[in-house]
Amino acid sequence: MGVFVFLPLVLPLTAWPIARLAEQQLHPRAATWLLAAVGGVLAVCSTLCLMLLMVVGTAQLPGNPLPDAWADPEVRAVLPYDEVVGRAAIPLLVTVAGACAHLVWLHRRVRTRAARALAGLPASEGRLAVLPDDARAYAYALPGGRGTAGARGRIVVSRAMLESLDARERQALIAHEEAHLTAGHHRFLLVAGLAARANPFLRPLRTAVAYTAERWADEDAARAVGDRRTVARAIGKAALVSRPAATGRGAATALAGFAVAGPVPRRVAALLGPVPAAPALPPAWTAAGLALWTAAGGAAASALASANATVTLFTVLKAATVL
Fold it and tell me: d(Cα 33, Cα 80) in Å, to the nearest integer?
C-alpha cells in the first residue's frame, strides 16, 4: 500500500484545470458527461482510500471488530499504518456519509414537494403542468419516478412565467425543460453534488456541471425552436422576473430551473455566438486537450492507486486470517 493509498485524496486537484476550460471549449453535452464521470470516479476512489486507512490504522485498537490476526506484527510489517490517521479517517467517513445521505434526502424531498404541488391539477396527457401562481415566475423540470407525478416527468411552469413571455419564448422555455427531462440532467447534478460532498476538492466540478447542463439544454432548445436569439431572449427575460418555486432550499439538486441555474449572462452570450462544435476530443497540444488529459490521468491514477491498495490489503489479510 505505502503512500500510494493517500493519492486518491489529493488527485481530485487534477480535475480543476478542466472545469473552466470544459465550460468554454467543449460541447456542453461532452463537458457534462466528462465532468460528472471524472468527479464520480475521483469521489469513489477518495472514499475508498479513507475506508482503507481506517481499517489498517485501527486494526490494533482495543474493541475493534476486526479479527485478531489482522493486528499480527507480521501483518503490520507488510501494511504500514498510522493509528492517528486511522482514527482521523473515522469522523471523516462519518461526515462524508452524512453529507451524501443528506443530499439524497434533500433530492427526494424536493421532488416530493414539487410533485405535491401538481396533485390538485386536472389530469393531462402532456408533460406540461401550469400552476396557478400569479405572484412568482418560475419553471423547472420534475423528473419522473416514485413519488412524482408522471413516470416520464413533468414540465412545471407558473402562470406568471408564461405571462411574461411571448409565444415563441414560451416554446423555447418548454423545449429547454423538455431537454432536461430527456437527457436526465438531474442525474448528472446529483452525481456532481455527491462527489463534491465526498471530497471538497471536487466542488469546482459541481459548479461546472450545473452550468454545462444548462448550456446543454439551451442548445437543444435552440435546435428545437430553430432560433438561438429567441432562446437567449427568453432566458434573459425569465431571469428578470424569476422567483424560486415553493419547493424548499436546494431545489437545484433535484430540479433544473429555467434561467436560474448557471450564470445567465454567459449563457445568453453563448447563444448569441456560433453553434458549438460537435462533441469531439480536443487536440492534446491545446489548453483544453492538456487539461482533459490531466483530469483523465488523475482519475486513472486514483483508480489504480485505490485498486492496488485494496488488492494488497485483501491479499495480505486473507492470508493472515484463518477462515
Answer: 37
Which grid cell is 13?
486537484
The grid coordinates listed for 15 are: 480535475
HSE toward the beta carbon, residue 126, CA cutoff 13 A = 7
Distance in angstroms (rounded) separating the CA atoms of residues 290 and 243 = 40
Q: Could you tell me if residue 32 is left (phi over 0), alpha (psi between -120 and 50 degrees) or otherwise beta? A: alpha
Say which DSSP state 123 is in. Answer: P
Which cell numbers in the block locate residue 255?
430540479
- What phi and psi values does residue 35 have, to the nearest 5 degrees? -65, -40
Provide the pairing of β-strand 154-158 with 139-142: antiparallel
Q: Rounded mean pLDDT of the chain?
A: 78
Q: How many CB atoms neighbour CB 277 within 10 A?
A: 11
pLDDT in tens, 34-70: 889 988 988 888 888 888 777 776 665 555 555 555 5
Q: Which of 79, 239, 251, 295 is nearest to 156 (CA)?
A: 251
- In the three-class reduction of DSSP (H, G, I as helix; E, B as strand; rest coil), residue 145 is classed as coil
Could you give the 3-state DSSP secondary structure of residue 271?
helix
At residue 142, the 3 state secondary structure works out as: strand
Of 13, 14, 7, 9, give the one whose Cα is nearest residue 295.
14
Q: Which residue has the cell 408564461?
A: 162
- How far apart, in Å, do the first and last CA atoms of the chain sit? 23
